[in-house]
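User: Could you go from structure to sequence for me? I need the amino acid at each position, not a summary. Structure tokens:
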């Protein structure tokens, strides 16, 4: 059955079905499309969160749990949370020891002040209301707790930015067509990356959601930005 891709209004039901459809080959496709850089980006997230044994960490938009396992390896009590049941099913089959939890980023199923750290990688832009999502993350984080957002951003060198946008809109869909079970999903993902705020714009959003001292560092020349803040 052909899955209609989500649009930039990000209707939750459409986005959920889209991620359900790509779940089986999602990690492999991302690895190829990022030219393997996604592994380095995940390491940067772990270093920024700096999880300690016994800490509670919420990994939001965790998908199949690839981003969550390193937290568990460091001794943290990590909760992978995603609203795609397809992603959670694939993740639970591969990593049955992790407590996968279904949840909407704008209405998280956790009490106030639950987590020492909250992180979300490449998922904030898919939440229907990213500001509301950041506020929910703030709600479930303990006072003084940490936020780390890893998200696609705007390359800092203008000539490269032009090449990058060309890759997103022209090269990415054909590659995804060869690799993914639902290539139209990657057209949406490319469009959502292009429409996403730049580094300062996201920092402003983080601050508006009630987080303190937002800052960022660029990865891969600004293809990705790592934003940090405290509760």
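Assistant: Here is the amino acid at each position, in order:
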């Amino acid at each position: 059955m052909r899955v209609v891709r989500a649009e930039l209004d990000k209707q939750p039901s459409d986005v959920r079905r889209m991620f359900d459809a790509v779940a089986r080959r999602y990690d492999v496709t991302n690895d190829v499309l990022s030219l393997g850089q996604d592994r380095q980006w995940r390491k940067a997230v772990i270093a920024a969160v700096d999880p300690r044994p016994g800490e509670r960490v919420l990994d939001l938009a965790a998908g199949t749990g690839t981003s969550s396992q390193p937290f568990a390896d460091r001794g943290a009590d990590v909760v992978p949370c995603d609203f795609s049941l397809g992603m959670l099913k694939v993740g639970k089959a591969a990593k049955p020891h992790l407590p996968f939890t279904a949840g909407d980023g704008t209405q998280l199923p956790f009490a106030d002040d639950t987590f020492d750290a909250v992180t979300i990688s490449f998922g904030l832009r898919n939440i229907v209301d990213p500001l509301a999502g950041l506020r929910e993350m703030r709600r479930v984080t303990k006072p003084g707790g940490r936020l780390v957002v890893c998200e696609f951003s705007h390359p800092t060198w203008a000539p490269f930015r032009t090449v990058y946008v060309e890759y997103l809109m022209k090269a990415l869909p054909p590659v995804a067509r060869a690799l993914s079970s639902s290539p139209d999903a990657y057209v949406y993902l490319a469009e959502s990356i292009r429409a996403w705020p730049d580094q300062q714009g996201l920092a402003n959003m983080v601050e508006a959601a009630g987080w303190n001292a937002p800052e960022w560092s660029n990865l891969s020349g600004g293809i990705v930005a790592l934003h940090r803040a405290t509760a």
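One structural detail worth keeping in mind: Residues 1-6 have pLDDT under 50 and may be disordered.
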